[in-house]
Amino acid sequence: MDYIATSAIRIGIIASLFKSLLIPSYRSTDFEVHRNWLAITHSLPVSQWYYENTSQWTLDYPPLFAWFEYSLSQAAAVVDPEMVVISKLEYASYRTIIFQRLSVVITDILLIYAVYDYCKWWSNNRRLSSSSTSHGENNTMIAAFVLMVLVIFNFGLIIIDHVHFQYNGMLFGIFLLSITKIAQEKFCQAALFFILLLNFKHLFAYVAPAYFVYLLRRYCFGKLQYSSWTEMRQDFRFTHLAKLSLIVLAVISISFGPFIAMINQLISRLFPFKRGLCHAYWAPNFWALYNVVDKAVAMISLRLGLLTGDKWQSASMTGGKVTESDHIVLPSIRPLTTFGLTLISILPSIVHLWRFPYSWRAFLRVMILCGFSSFIFGWHVHEKHLITVIVPFTLLAIENKNDARLFFLLSCIGHYSLFPLLYEPTESPIKHILYILYSIFAYYGLQLCSCSSLKSIHRLRPLKVSLFEKIYIIGLLFVQIYTIFLHSVFKLNDKLPFLPLLITSVYCSIGVLYVWANFYARSIWLTSDKNEYIED
Amino acid sequence: MAEFLSNPHGFILDNIIATLIALLIRWCISLNPYSGKGKPPMYGDYEAQRHWMELTTNLPVKQWYFESPNNNLSYWGIDYPPLTAYHMWICGQIAKRINPIWIELNTSHGYESSNHQLFMRYTVVMVDLILYIIPVLLFCNMVLAKRSRILRFSLSLLMLLQPASLLIDHGHFQYNCCSLGLALIAILFIFRGHDVFGACAFSLALNYKQMELYHSLPFFCYLLGKSLHSSKPFFKIITLGVTVIITFGVCWFPFLFDTNQATQLVKRLFPFNRGLYEDKVSNVWCTVNVLIKLRQIFSQQTLVALSLLATVAAVLPSSIHLIIYPSRHRFILALVNSSLAFFLFSYQVHEKSVLLACMPASLLLPWYPAESGLFLLYATFSMVPLLIKDGLLLPYISIMMLYLYLLYITFRSYYQVGTIQKYMYGISIMVMSCLHGYAAIAIPPRRYPDLVAVLISAISCCFFTLFFLYCNYLQFTASDDLIKASVTSKSKSD
Question: Which residues cross the membrane (chain B) (predicted)?
Answer without folding.
Answer: 12-29, 122-144, 150-168, 180-206, 234-257, 303-325, 331-347, 354-381, 393-411, 423-445, 451-474
